[in-house]
Amino acid sequence: MKYELATSTWDDREIDAITGLIKSGQFSMGEKVRKYEQDFADFFGSKYAVMTSSGSTANLLMIAALFYTKNIEHKLNRGDEVIVPAVSWSTTYFPLQQYGLKVKFVDIDPQTLNFNLEDLEGAITPKTRAILAVNLLGNSNDFKKLKELIAKRDIILLEDNCESMGATLDDQMTGTFGLMGTFSSYFSHHIATMEGGCVITDDEEIYHILLCLRAHGWTRNLPEDNHVTGKKGEDFFSEAFRFVLPGYNVRPLEMSGAIGIEQLNKLPQLLKTRRENAKYFVDLFSKLKYLRIQKEIGRSSWFGFSMILEPDAPISRNDLIDIFDKNNIEFRPIVTGNFCKNIEVLSYFDFEVYGDMSNAQYLDENGLFIGNHHVDVREQLKFIRSLLI
To answer: Are residues 110 and 150 in the same domain?
Structure first.
């Protein structure tokens, strides 16, 4: 048996979607991407969605957009302080450095693996301008408590939801609790569109800025009446090559949009099976008292199954790695572990560490995760459980 970290969610529908586009000759971003964006916004209960080339570039556009808004309540400036959890993927943090923001790292909760809310409360100061909440491994933050912490404060709430597509809290989709939320549709994630990402928001001005920044900073993809330039000119030729913001080219392929349409149709069933697998995993592995598994907040979409050894565990993480490796069970660190250990790249940051990062460091030294899947893997999970003491 080989237990992989991720497996393909594609079938003939995705292949047919690609084949149709190849025959049409339409490869650059077009109607399929626009249809996917509308379907995506509808599925997650948001007004607007902007597809990008990856979840990482979705994060980049999310941060960049806040530098060009005219709405002072939503605006960031260089030097502003942004609070982040100490455990996430690298490209949660890099756009903050690239836009000259001060990054304040806060420890995680040892059970949920998201923000430690007590530490977060202590880390907030009058200098805090934004909080970037990361929903880790499919698990929602406790946004009810988080919003209580920032009530009546001039703080922007953002979400990196790249690992948690389909998670909910009180029947509200994660990714919709903040001003913007980002998603990833990379191969190992809940749906796969080759590479791909998305930003969702209910704010029309932010939406228009995202459209402009995604493609060269030009006005071509903006509606005639928009919040970036006001009204577009009547000369199509001149307007098509009018540049107004220092943007990027992080457009998705038209094929990715076509695949995404098919994948979104499957997402409810993909989530249902992941949750069934997770129920079995929790029931089976919670009996191992020396193994800590992630505490669910709301309704997780179960990206993967984390395992953190308790201090009195009869085995070490090296033992666990050895067992898994010998039995063809793929595993990974829990995202990046404690990102604050990466002193080489942090030398480029303006940053602060609030507290001692003890929970993030413990996870870093004693944790790993295995994959969850869109197909029934209960027998494989039963086998993995049989390998442990």
So the answer is: yes
In a shared domain, residues 196 and 299: no
Tokens of 134: 């990361």
**Same domain membership, residue 33 and residue 82:** yes
Task: Report the pLDDT value the prediction gives residue 221, as an integer from 0 to 100.
Answer: 96
pLDDT band at 256 (very low <50, low <70, confident <90, very high): very high
Name the one residue in this structure whose structure tokens are 């880390």: 123
321 and 196 within one domain: no
Task: Tell me which amino acid residue 191 is.
Answer: I
Can you give the C-alpha Rg of the chain in angstroms?
Answer: 21
Query: Are 249 and 300 in the same domain?
Result: no
pLDDT number for residue 389: 85
* DSSP H/E element including 62: helix 55-65
Region 76-99: what's the mean pLDDT? Answer: 98
What confidence score (pLDDT) does residue 285 get? 98
Looking at the fold, whether 71 and 208 belong to one and the same domain comes out as yes
Cβ neighbours of residue 210 under 8 Å, at least 6 residues apart? Answer: 48, 50, 61, 62, 65, 199, 201
119 burial (CB, 10 Å; 0-12 / 13-18 / 19+) is buried
Each residue of 147-203: pLDDT tens digit?
999 998 999 999 999 999 999 999 999 999 999 999 999 999 999 999 999 999 999
Angle between helices 12-24 and 254-285 (to 10 degrees): 170
Residue 225: beta bridge partners? Answer: 231
Catalytic residue among 189, 190, 373, 374: 189
Q: By residue range, what is the domain housing residue 37?
A: 12-262
On whether residue 7 sits in a domain, the answer given is: no
Tell me whether residue 189 is one of the annotated catalytic residues: yes
